[in-house]
Every structure is written in structure tokens, then in C-alpha cells.
Design brief:
alpha+beta, Ribosomal Protein S5, domain 2, Alpha-Beta Plaits, four-stranded antiparallel sheet, 10 helices, globular, binds adenosine-5'-diphosphate, binds the ligand N[C@@H](CCOP(=O)(O)O)C(=O)O, EC 2.7.1.39, amino-acid biosynthesis, Ribsml_uS5_D2-typ_fold_subgr
């Protein structure tokens, strides 16, 4: 086996009203440098990664092993050097990036020749929803749906003119915890309103009406009203960002990071203003990654 590098982007899920369905890839990366070895070794070279464990307890190793076993293969021993720019449990898809990296590690090391559809299926089974896995794999903004136990349909949007600003607070919020506050059921009336808002958001995004898209992003009824209390400054960030000229600001994934979509070319100036207003936050201007998962040999 020759050496290779796996690079997986971060992602922002939901984009307001498209709960568990829409996600955009972001240019922060999880990187694995993989080479052949006599024994398994995971070397974590970033302060953003979880504490070191025995390789068998490493999350990425477990995903890789499980993927290999699905195809009746055994993983050959590898040395893996892991680096990451994606903060954990902040709503930037770190777990989806780790899952995609683990699937690709098995794909390369065991020569599984997995298709994008299979990788999306495996990743979604593990994560439970496709909205982070799909953009992490495919890049761009992806709308996806689990149509049956074995089928996920998706459509990828790679053509847009937007700047993206993230506001990352200095505390973690586990996705599981933020899912526990959501209602188990919605009435027909609630579901109709919530999905109508999502429909208008997507149609405006596709036709380039970013003002209307931003308005609809901020009207989500599926998750934001229930999560707002978990996210300090939820209302203040939205209001200040809007006054600074963004189209819309939403919770990134399950939070606690928030994300604004802004006119192309204005992101940096808005980020500088927001950094002054919210000194406790890491404010970053990011780009939508258009490549998704990359394997570099
Ligand atoms: N590179 C990684 N290596 C090992 N575990 C990871 C890695 N990235 C994420 N995880 C696991 O995923 C958890 C965060 O997942 P989650 O709560 O879904 O938040 P998010 O995906 O928004 O960052 C981490 O606490 C850690 O257990
Ligand atoms: N649709 C999910 C997305 C979770 O994203 P994460 O980046 O916070 O893991 C949800 O909203 O629960």
C-alpha cells in the first residue's frame, strides 16, 4: 500500500429551515496522512482533536474497521497522522468529517472501490442524518433526503455567490443534547408552515434571490425556536449581523456556532465588525468548499 492523504471539509447543516436535509461544506479540514506500518498507530497532531486513546478506541479507526468488515475485509496496519481545523461539538460537522475520513480510510486501505452513493449511505447510517455527511463527501451545498432504508437522494448546488461568516463560542454543545430538546411530533399545520418556509428558501437560493433566502433562513420552525435557549446571544447575533448587512443568520447544525450568509465580497468587513461586538467569539470568514472529500496520493 502506498502512502496517501485524506482531506475532509467541515460542514454546516440545516441552513435554517432545511432540518436534517441541507448542508454546506466549509473550508476547515480534517486531514489524515496514512502510510503502511507494522502495527496500528494513530498520532493526533492538533489541539482540536479529542484526547489520545488506544488505536482500537479511536473513533476514526472504529468507523474504518466497521466499513472494512461490511465487505469481509480486514484493515491492514497503518500509521495515521491526524490534524484538524474543525472544532469539536460546535455545530461544524466534526463527527461527520471523522466518519467520512474513517470510511475513506477503509476504502483506500482495503481497495473497496466504494461509490459516492455507498459512502453517503454508510455515513448516514452511522450519523443518523445525511445533512453533514453529504457536503463533507461531495462539497458545495447539498440537499438530501432518506427516501427508504437503503436509499438517499440528493442534489448538489455548486454555483452561488455568497460569503459565509461563523461565530464560534468557546463552549461545546453535543448534537445529541441539542436534538433532545426538539419535539417528537409536529402538527399538520406546523409541518406545512415549516416545510413551506424551507421550499421558498431553497427556491430563492437557486434563483439567486438571496434577500428572500436570508429572510426564510431566519424563519425556521423545525428546530431553532426550541434550541434558542441553549445558545447564548442567539437573538443578539442575528440582529447585529442583519444590521451589518448579512442576508440571514442561523444556528450552524445543532449549534452552538451561528453562521451568517452575506453578500459576496462583504464578509470580511462584516466579520471585523462582529468580532468587535462579540469579543468572546472566534469570528471567521469562511468559504463554501466545492470539492468535498479529497484523496491525495
Ligand atoms: N477527529 C475526530 N476524532 C475522533 N472523534 C471525533 C473527531 N471529530 C469528532 N469526533 C467525535 O464527535 C463528537 C462531536 O460530535 P457532535 O456532538 O455531533 O458535534 P459536531 O459534529 O457538530 O462537531 C466529539 O465530541 C468526538 O466524540
Ligand atoms: N441536522 C442535525 C445537524 C447536526 O449538525 P452538527 O454539526 O451539530 O453535528 C441537527 O440539527 O441536529
Amino acid at each position: 500500500m502506498s502512502s496517501f492523504t485524506i482531506k475532509v471539509p467541515a460542514s454546516t447543516a440545516n441552513i435554517g429551515p432545511c432540518f436534517d436535509s441541507a448542508g454546506g461544506a466549509l473550508n476547515l479540514y480534517l486531514t489524515l496522512q496514512v502510510s503502511e506500518a507494522d502495527n496500528w498507530e494513530f498520532e493526533q497532531r492538533s489541539p482540536l482533536l479529542p484526547a489520545d486513546t488506544h488505536y482500537e478506541d479511536n473513533f476514526i479507526y472504529k468507523i474504518a474497521k466497521q466499513t472494512a468488515e461490511r465487505h469481509d475485509k480486514q484493515l491492514p496496519a497503518c500509521k495515521v497522522i491526524v490534524t484538524s481545523e474543525i472544532p469539536l461539538a460546535r455545530g461544524l460537522g466534526s463527527s461527520a468529517s471523522a466518519i467520512v475520513a474513517g470510511i475513506e480510510l477503509a476504502n483506500q486501505a482495503c481497495k473497496l472501490s466504494l461509490s459516492p452513493k455507498e459512502k453517503l449511505q454508510y455515513g448516514t447510517e452511522i450519523e443518523g442524518h445525511p445533512d453533514n455527511i453529504a457536503p463533507a463527501l461531495l462539497g458545495g451545498i447539498v440537499f438530501s433526503v432518506i427516501t427508504s432504508a437503503n436509499e438517499i437522494d440528493w442534489i448538489r448546488l455548486a454555483d452561488f455567490n455568497l460569503d459565509v461568516i461563523v461565530y464560534i463560542p468557546n463552549f461545546e454543545l453535543k448534537t445529541e443534547e441539542a436534538r433532545n430538546v426538539l419535539p417528537a411530533n409536529y402538527s399538520r399545520e406546523q409541518a406545512t408552515s415549516a416545510s413551506s418556509i424551507g421550499n421558498v428558501m431553497i427556491a430563492s437560493l437557486l434563483t439567486g434571490d438571496y434577500v428572500l433566502a436570508g429572510k426564510m433562513m431566519e424563519k425556521d420552525l423545525f428546530h431553532e425556536p426550541f434550541r434558542a435557549n441553549l445558545i447564548p446571544n442567539f437573538g443578539r447575533i442575528k440582529k447585529e449581523a442583519k444590521l451589518s448587512g448579512v442576508y440571514g443568520t442561523v444556528i450552524s447544525g445543532a449549534g452552538p456556532t451561528m453562521i451568517s450568509f452575506a453578500p459576496n465580497g462583504e464578509g470580511q468587513a462584516i466579520a471585523e465588525h462582529m468580532e468587535t461586538a462579540f469579543g468572546d467569539y472566534q469570528v471567521k470568514t469562511l468559504e463554501i468548499d466545492r470539492d468535498g472529500l479529497q484523496v491525495i496520493k
